[in-house]
Amino acid sequence: AYASDLRGFIKYLQNSMNRPPQLADLSSKQVAGYLETEVKVGRRQSTLIRRVSTRRQFVRHLIQQGALRGNVLDQDAHLINHIIAQVPQNHDPKLLSATQISQLERTFESSKRHRARRDQAILSLLLETGLSVADLVELDLSDVDLRAGRLHIIRSQGNDKWLPLGKANDIVARYLSEGRPELNPQSNEPALFVSQMGSRMSRQGIWQILNHWGNLTDPPIKISPRKVRHTAALRMAHAGRSLEEIQTLLGHSNPLSTQALLRRLEDNISNSDLI
Max alpha carbon distance in the chain (Å)? Predict the structure, then answer.
């Protein structure tokens, strides 16, 4: 999906400039122009947001590779936000309820399989930190400090961040002692979370895991990384975490994006069981 999004953007640039695009052409103005063409063909707001996310991921990659010195999409980002804001939301973000989270925890605990310890640690870590799946699969063993109860990540700007593990600390510790060794990781595999083949997990693998355990509950729970991430964001807000801290944990470049997300999530709450 990401590759398709980028190909569509490159085709737009070629057609609009009548020449092959260069890195210097990558800007908020060009992205906004592309989004306008997407709006005209009836794209939903969620699709536009994904389009922008793909470009931001691409820019972060270019920065890490040294091809760009800074995030070119931060400048004039209001042009992008304005286009997205004009398109009505197709639906409110959904959340996991406290009851559903408890159901998932009981399902994990009832399983004796070693992968259950891993999968429980994955869900717990996602709910506690709001990390994206992309950030999660990049975690190494060296990024976990169980004694201090914290997790190390590197943001796109190269800044080191230490996130509190909170309630996930004991669950991750159990996975490292009871789950990961039994998954037969390769001797030189640094990844925190490994597949049943003993190598680093993929983003698709995380999707499959969440879907698998959601289907095992009674009644089944429709679960996705986005739903987990949204639940984590609102839980952190209700726990008194500052907007700046939540923005950092979610990896948002703009605090207005975090504020808007939390507002939409609050509007989605219909009863006290949602958190």
Answer: 61
